[in-house]
Amino acid sequence: MSKRGFGLLLVLLFFSLSLSGCYYFSAKKEIGNAQALLDQFKSAGGPAKAPYEYCTAEKLLDVSRGEFDENDYKHSVEFAVRSKTASQAGLAEMNKQK
Q1: DSSP-based three-state secondary structure for 44
Q2: What is the pLDDT of residues 17-28, one digit of tens each?
Q3: CB-based contact 37:88 (threshold 8 Å)
């Protein structure tokens, strides 16, 4: 293998590891944010007042954690964001019922 080919291989390896690390931390942050919002939703009475949104948010967060455990960080972020959206929709629904 030539020096140039070896150098190119190292550069590609560096970028692939850098990008996967970014997804890892992004997924971890989004899961934490989704969990915090789900906890807020639950403490506000979400399971009783907006059960559809609560179950949806909870299951999407479970799927996000499963994807994270399988090292599929991109999809983990997507499911965590969807979980947050479901929690926000549930909180909005509860505010409309007041």
Answers
A1: coil
A2: 665 567 889 999
A3: yes
Residue in the structure block whose two tokens are 């989004």: 30
Spans of all domains in the chain: 22-97
With 90 as the cut, is the pLDDT of residue 31 above it?
yes
HSE of 43 in the Cβ direction (CA atoms, 13 Å)?
Answer: 6
For the entire predicted model, the pTM comes to 0.78
Q: Residue 57 carries which DSSP code? A: H
Which residues, at least 6 apart from 92, have a Cβ–Cβ distance to it below 8 Å?
A: none
Are 64 and 79 within 8 A, CB to CB? yes
Contact between residue 80 and residue 64 where contact means Cβ atoms under 8 Å apart: yes
CA atoms within a 13 Å half-sphere pointing along the CA-CB vector of 54: 14
3-class SS of residue 71:
coil
